[in-house]
Amino acid sequence: MTALLREGLRELGLDESRAETLERFAALLLKKNEVMNLTAITEPDAVAQLHLLDSAALLQFADLTGKNVVDVGTGAGFPGLPIAIARPDVRVTLLDSLNKRIGFLREVCKELDINADCIHDRAEDGGRNPALREKFDIAVSRAVARVSPLAEYTVPFVKVGGRSLMYKGPQAAAELKEGERALELLCCTGEIRSYPAEWGERSVIILTKQKPTAKAYPRKAGTAEKKPL
Description:
Layout: H1 2-11, H2 19-32, H3 44-56, E1 68-72, H4 80-86, E2 91-96, H5 99-112, E3 116-120, H6 123-128, E4 136-142, H7 147-154, E5 158-168, H8 172-178, H9 180-185, E6 188-195, E7 202-209, H10 223-226
Parallel strand pairs: 1-2, 1-4, 2-3, 4-5
Antiparallel strand pairs: 5-7, 6-7
Helix pairs in contact: 1-2, 1-3, 3-4
């Protein structure tokens, strides 16, 4: 795995020396996965590509120097933890609704000395919390929801001029089209950036926030998925 990670980091223009910490994270993930459902991907090289390098690939599209980043619906720590490992100068907040996952992520951050905050909260509640609302430069998300509900989950966290970066596959254009009304209501513009990867076509949808989020958003928990904007 180390050689694969080093090569991938080099191709992304990132510090190859971070491969060791990424591999240690993978080992902790797979060990915990034996007693807790964190990932269906368990083959080491697949973890390296589909989780670690795929997460770090976001750094091609955003200069995070000096930025405050929130990973909304982080799950097992993707994409936020690989970003924090690859760029230890970036302050990353990991937010998830399942306390067991947050407990695991706290253990990982302590074990690997990772500069990240871990918060147990639903995205809708966190987005209304004055301590978190419009406090971040960047929101990131991976495998959480389609564009419309995901925009409602993530955009309230970022400052005006900030961005929500959503990992997507080949369906990105269709999702962005489907979410046009949500972007309008949340005062965002959207664009797609795609990149080649050995594991398939990957895209990032980039939403840029133009105005403060209206007080009506995010709506109460569960509404965004049931009644998309």
